[in-house]
Specification:
Length: 308
């Protein structure tokens, strides 16, 4: 076992200003500053050390409306993600302690934006639609055989999101979300330009009940579409659909009871899927294949709560 102790100190500052130009036009501008300080103590002395990085992230939101209970919005800004602290001071491959290894950038910038519309023109209903884009200077990709994520090529994603929120009764709420995304590496590589595990379609539909007579509960369907598992897209995961539900009752004496059904229809799909080499006992050499974590089988959970 190779011990690695890491310490990361983070300092962040944020300032925001809202300006209302007219009754139907407003803007919010923000500026964020982040400073990361890494300190790595590895059993391999060459991989120990310190590193630091900082980043400034401007953000802007413009909203026009409402007109006829409808408004348009535009959001744009810069963000970031941090890489594994161990990679910021890396000098040699930890598996052999000899082979030179490249360090990763502590902080990786992202640039994104969206434009869309929100409306409540339909009675008891709120609807939203948006087009979005996100560019990453470096994508984080999971490496299954090592059990870690690694810094990879730059990428760009764009897509569409649709959302509906309906409240036909005071105690009944229905919501639905649908998203489609297109994700690709932007730097050329013979391996391909697909981003492993970048899900292309997501659907979520739910209903929630909170009746004044004590009844409560709801149900939610979650669907994750197929995704490429390797860069050339020749191997793909299968879609996953799971339904959870719950029903409960609040008694007048402060006692409430609930029954939840997880994976109500006992889906045999997978929570997550990867493609990499592995070698089982008795196999002469590693085999490239799909590895997965299955959805937990159907479960029923009863809860009894007392408040005093």
């Amino acid at each position: 076992i190779k011990r690695v102790d890491t310490l990361r100190r983070i300092t962040s500052l944020f300032v925001e200003q809202e300006i209302r130009f007219t009754p139907s036009l407003r803007a919010t501008a923000g500026l964020r500053y982040d400073y990361f300080d890494f300190d790595v103590d590895s059993i391999i002395a060459a991989n120990s050390g310190t590193a630091h990085d900082d980043i400034v992230s401007p953000k802007l939101s413009i909203v026009a409306g409402p007109w006829a209970r409808t408004e348009l919005f535009l959001n744009a800004g810069r963000g970031f993600h941090s890489n594994d602290a161990r990679g910021t001071t890396l000098s040699v491959d930890p598996t052999d302690g000899v082979t030179p290894a490249a360090q990763v950038s502590p902080l990786v910038a992202t640039h994104g934006g969206e434009i869309g519309v929100r409306t409540a023109i339909v009675p008891y209903t709120q609807l939203a639609a948006s087009l979005w884009t996100l560019a990453l200077d470096s994508e984080l990709v999971f490496v299954g055989d090592a059990g870690i994520t690694e810094s990879n090529r730059a990428s760009r994603r764009h897509g569409v999101e649709l959302a509906a929120f309906v409240k036909p009764l005071e105690w009944l709420t229905i919501d639905a979300d649908f998203a489609v995304s297109h994700a690709r590496f932007t730097q050329p590589d013979p391996a391909g330009h697909r981003i492993p595990n970048a899900v292309e379609r997501v659907v979520s539909v739910g209903v929630a009940v909170d009746h004044p007579r004590g009844w409560s509960g709801g149900a939610r369907l979650r669907h994750l579409g197929a995704a490429p598992l390797i860069e050339d897209g020749s191997v793909r995961s299968r879609p996953t659909t799971v339904v959870n539900a719950e029903v409960g009752f609040r008694f007048a004496n402060g006692i409430s009871a609930a029954l939840a059904g997880l994976n109500l229809f006992d889906s045999r799909h997978n929570d997550i899927t990867y493609f990499y080499e592995s070698q089982l006992a008795g196999e002469a050499e590693p085999v490239s294949d799909i590895h997965f974590h299955p959805v937990e089988p159907r479960q029923l959970r009863a809860t009894l709560t007392m408040d005093w």
